[in-house]
Amino acid sequence: MAQSSDCCTWDGIQCDEITGHVISIDLSNSALYGFINSSSSLFQLVHLQKLRAYILKNSKQQFSNYSTKHPLISPTTTSITLKIPFGVRRLSKLTYLNLAYFGFSSEIPAEILQLSKLVSLVLYSNPLKLHKSGLKSIAEKLTNLEELVLSEVDISSTIPSILANLSSLTTIFLRDCGLHGEFPTGIFQLPNLKSLSVRFNPKLTGHVPEFNRSSPFENLRLAGASFSGKLPDSMGNLQSLYYLDVDSCNFSGPIPLSFANLTKLTYLDLSNNNFNRGTLSWVGKQTKLTMLLLGNISLYGDIPFSIGNLTKLTSLSLGWNELTGPIPSWLTNLTQLNTLWLPKNKLFGPIPTSISSILNLQILDLYSNNLSGTIEFDLFRKLNNLSHVDLSYNNLSLIIDPSTDSTFQKFKVLGLGSCNLSDFPKFF
User: Fold this and answer.
1) Residue pair 164/188 in contact by the 8 Å Cβ criterion
2) Do the beta carbons of residue 214 and residue 192 sit within 8 Å?
3) Structural domain contains residue 106
4) Torsion 321-326-327-330 (CA) sign
5) What backbone phi and psi angles, to 5 degrees, belong to 61?
6) Strand (E) positions, 377-423?
7) Has residue 210 been placed in a domain?
8) Three-state DSSP class for 175?
């Protein structure tokens, strides 16, 4: 069927109903390929307000064919450099610019800063560089920004405190940008900020300030940055928080009991921090949780019955702590569970046979506890999705039926060290 000559009827194109001018282009699902340079007719659409387009990467041969025709391409023997065209400055009415996954490299051109009406700037997953004063320039020139997403862009600088002046910001994603220095605490207190990610910037230091009840935070990701100090009790005021990841920071002090108030959480990772020894008394009311990751944070005591309330859990990670008591039989309430990770604790008693009813289980790691008793390997036969089992270094006696067949070839990891085996398992 022939495509209409009226571009306003095309998929991903929106026009002003009165003037007919193209005001929005969303080609993110169009499987485009090729290149854009400053002479492209795209930059003649001076009324454009929104531009979102992902371009698929081409093969080396396609790059070679295009490189002689397009001046923005600088071919080398090992790589192709794709620059954001300077022509973007002509789109002075742009409010939304999303060029994620484009494969652009080199520096982000200063022409971007001429787009003073930008509300959303999304350039993540491009091997781009932002010159050293770049974040400061963005804060000074793009004062209407609500969304700043530069994850994986090479920024390699400090974060200027002036960024905290952009009171309209709702989203800041600066993951893996080579950031360093002290993170300005004022950014946490931006009145409209809902999402902040500075993950995987190991030279970025900082601390988490107090929060009031009006804070709109929904999504806070600090994992792999060098934040330290205590997590404040006032984090319990973040009633809208659904995602919290502080894995592998340097936090210390107690885990706030106020975390019990964070009932909208779906993802919680506090792993690998220096918290005080504590129990899991604050866990159980977060019934929307799908991921609960609390490895290596000095937990002690029994696994509380309240975790059985978290019936949406797909991953439960409590390894490298000092948890005691038996593995609870009520874990079978967690029917969505695909990962149960409990290594390096002080759990004792038998492995409950009811564990075979957690049919979605893919990973079962009980390495290095004080578990005891006799267990038949056939217990795991019902678990069709199970690919990782580690029972090593307990006081278990594992019985493997000689007739066990090749249906167990599904395993990718199988740890049976110190399990009192008498024969080498034939199904290997």
Assistant:
1) no
2) no
3) yes
4) negative
5) -65, -40
6) 388-390, 395-399, 413-415
7) no
8) coil
Q: What is the pTM of this model?
A: 0.87
Tokens 């929106």 correspond to 14
Residue 260 lies in a domain: no
Alpha carbon distance 75, 66 (integer Å): 10
Domain of residue 9, residue span: 1-125
Report the length, in residues, of the chain.
428
> The CATH number of the domain where 63 resides is what?
3.80.10.10
CB of 322 within 8 A of CB of 303? no
Place of tokens 């046979």: 353
Instruction: Enter the tokens of residue 241.
Output: 């928080």
Residue 332 sits at φ, ψ, to 5 deg, of: -65, -15
User: Any idea which residue has 């025709």 for tokens?
Assistant: 69
**Per-residue tokens: 28:** 């993110």
pLDDT band (50, 70, 90) for residue 30? low
C-alpha to C-alpha distance for 348 and 118, rounded to whole angstroms? 59
Q: Which residue has the tokens 């492995």?
A: 351
How far apart CA 286 and CA 274 sit, in angstroms, is 23
- What is the share, in percent, of the chain residues with pLDDT greater than 70? 85
> How many domains does the chain fold into?
1
